[in-house]
Amino acid sequence: xxxxxxSKSELRGSALARRDALPVSGRQSAAKALAEQTWFKAGDQVxxxxxxxxxxIDPAALLEALNKTAAQLALPVLLDAETMVFRAWDRSKxxxxxxxxxxxxxxxxxxxxxxxxxxxxxxxxxxxxxxxYGKGHYDRAxxxxxxxxxxxxxxxxxxxxxxxxxxxxxxxxxxxxGVLTPSGLRVFDHGREALQPxxx
Length: 200
Prior knowledge:
alpha/beta, Rossmann fold, seven-stranded mixed beta sheet, 12 strands
């Protein structure tokens, strides 16, 4: 009888349970470790991250480090259930609710096309497959940009505990070019060219 592999839903559930089980002190140390990574050179690129919710690894310290560079920061915003865009982040202005329980720039901030997208995730595989939260927001947004001729680098931010052996990818799934964990940056073979401009 063929071996039954875990479904995406099962992998998502188990990975999120591991993430939720991490102690708060461990999560804080992991977030600090992200900011101390030395792989990245920003230049004047547009870099999108996210406002962390729940037990997601928090990119706040990493963004503080990026804010000291020439990079333009951006955050994702949900316009509706299907459409996610990226808005420039003016650090002098308060963030507002922008869907999915998270915060982002208000509508008076311009939409931008990021050169690098740093995204949360539920799980990732050793070949760069990403499991998100099942809504497809990043897949649709990235696919739309690529269809318009703009190909941002795509990096997942995660705890090491979120890695899974493999993911049964679907046609619409956009793979990660790399994943950044407290252990360091892992660049996947298919993403090396996209990430090269950002690597020290």
